[in-house]
Amino acid sequence: MTCTYVYAAAGPAARCYRESLHTSQPWQRPMEFLARSMISLQDSNTTVPTAPTVVELEKVLFGGKRFGNPVDEVWPNLFIGDLSVANDRYKIWKMGITHILNAAHGKTHCQGSHDFYGSNVDYYGVPADDSPTFDLSHYFLPSANYIKDALSMPGARVFVHCAVGVSRSASLVLAYLMIHHRYTLLEAINKVKEHRWIFPNRGFLKQLHHFSKRKTEINYFLLNKVLKCSFFIICAQQ
Asked: What do the Gene Ontology cellular component annotations say (predicted)?
């Protein structure tokens, strides 16, 4: 996880690395990469890139088409949809869905179960309220891991839904793209919006924004530590 996230957050350091690959002395590349990376980070005061505010993200979400299909494929073999699709077992079968993540699980929301879908469909329920005060962030990582593990199976097709398919389910898919595909929140939103209109409520958007910000800050902190430790190790070996 560290290597994946740190490289994604490297910014100037990653550019230095790519440039260092063209040096005529291969044995100098690690040293050059580390030295130039540290200089780049010092020049920028290791500041974390400014992310769009929640209000700015809402403007992005509000743009483009609004509402559309009951279900859309937003990532290869990953679908977001509404309750009408979730309740249609024939449609689920016709789509070839193998895994269902219900982001509105519960008697007062969207009742789903293994019994309803049968043994050919794996079911995972998240009992979330579509309320700005509901803490959905507790489910970001478990849901992202569920989607990742499901899609790693040959022939898997994952359907993530809530009641309308624009807030709860969309938030969990955005978290998946951020966690397992190193997307920023803005990049994840734009990727999903290419295929479906989504609009997480402000509370969920704030939680995603905070999660994205913390992940980036941790990445930059780890990058500093990795570069400094590696620099001293290589210096000692010269």
From this structure: cytoplasm; nucleus
